[in-house]
């Protein structure tokens, strides 16, 4: 059964600064506890990641996933290519400039291929949402301002 969630956060940075942090997928394990490793397999002509292989731990399961990224000036999204524990996964960051800040909306839909109790899936989604918004914000501020 597919589940979806969305969350917004305001980050004191420009969309391009935020997208640069998202694009640095190989450093994601340093600020996201769910990511154990990430490797860029292919890049787009502009150098941003296209196909990425990652090892993710969520809901007590470790999964190796391959995703394809799509980029615009105000968004980053990915679609699952292959995984052991998921049938599908689609996620999007949408960035809206607001003065010297940016409103970041994160949306994700996942469809596990293994049956999971509702509370386990809900806990895994909550952790993913917190990392994707609050964790991203902390990492962006660390990179752009040299602090936390």
UniProtKB/TrEMBL annotation:
Lineage: superkingdom: Bacteria
Membrane-spanning intervals of the chain: none
Pfam families found in the cross-reference section: Polyketide_cyc2
CDD domains reported for this sequence: SRPBCC_2
Record protein name field: Cyclase
Organism, as annotated: Mycolicibacterium litorale
